[in-house]
What we know:
Blueprint: H1 4-53, E1 58-67, E2 70-79, E3 86-92, H2 107-115, E4 118-123, H3 140-154, E5 160-170, H4 177-183, E6 187-193, H5 199-213, H6 218-236, H7 241-247, H8 256-265, H9 271-280, E7 284-291, H10 297-307, E8 313-322, H11 328-331, H12 334-343, H13 353-362
Parallel strand pairs: 3-4, 3-5, 5-6, 6-7, 7-8
Antiparallel strand pairs: 1-2, 2-4
Amino acid sequence: MLHTHETEQEAEAQLGPARRPRSRRRRFLRALAATAAALSLAAVVLTGLAAWHNTYDLREEHVVIHTGGRALNAVLALPHRGRGPFGVVVFVHGDGPIDATHDTFYRPMWEAFAQAGYASLSWNKPGVGGSAGNWLDQSMADRAAETADAIAWARTRPDLDGHRIGLWGASQAGWVLPKVAATTPGIRFVIAVSPAINWLRQGRYNTLAELTDRGAPPAERDAALARREAGLAVLRRGGTYADYRAAVPSDRAMTADRWHFISRNWTSDATSDLRAVGARGVPTLLVLAGHDRNVDVAETETVYRRELPPRSLQVEHYAQADHGLADLDVIRSETRAFLTAVFAPRSLFTPGYLDSLRTFTRRFNP
């Protein structure tokens, strides 16, 4: 017969190996549960933080603008407080299939304008987000007429001040803003962000800048310029898309829709319209980026200063910004750009730009 102490040791030895795994499993499950709870809490916190940072001091109203026999789905972003009538900034998009919010990129700007007492009006381009038509069917004159119709619509709203209507536009809008400001009565101001002057010179600049950025060898540069000249030769003689496809290698050719869009617009030049804007004395804020690979900002500034009187022109340079006024330090890292877009979208813009929009626009309050 074993002594009690020996019996206890033997029992412990027999039970120990069975008990220890169960104890480890319990500890593991408790740790797993705690980790899951912590992750769930973190997810809730991060989701709430993202929602908070993506909540803007605005009242957004979905509206419909009729122009050229078609309906465009639009957003009217009003200041969160007050009944108006508010001034309104009409947004003119750059190139591409852009919706009213530009994939939410516009909202920080809408908020800046709202803080200055202004509403913002923007629409889905034709063929985008339920808007009728096809934006690739438009000339710059068509886009200007569309913008004028949007202004006319805004002037029917009792909560908007038809005497305080301004324009904001970027990139390709450089050929639209001056047309509208030169022909539409009562435009109080224009904000032109990275606008181009001449379609052909802009295209050549962009081609060369992108090749330089990626360190393309001379042979690639020469081939790109040769393809460009081949396409231009077809445009100059009024050739068809089939002529263009015969002149350019198929793996480098643009689509038929894009070809027709360019054939409508390749002679665009903003100079004469800017001269007319200058004659009207429309106050203009010209915003230029230090790292613009789309537009030759030196040419743009030269022409704006030549055609607009000094008293009506304000020029601002943002050395650490790209073509869209995004902060280079942010967008150089895809991870940082993503996290910023989710958790601090206002910080996507280069420092000072949003403040400048507020300050400039407040000048036109009663």
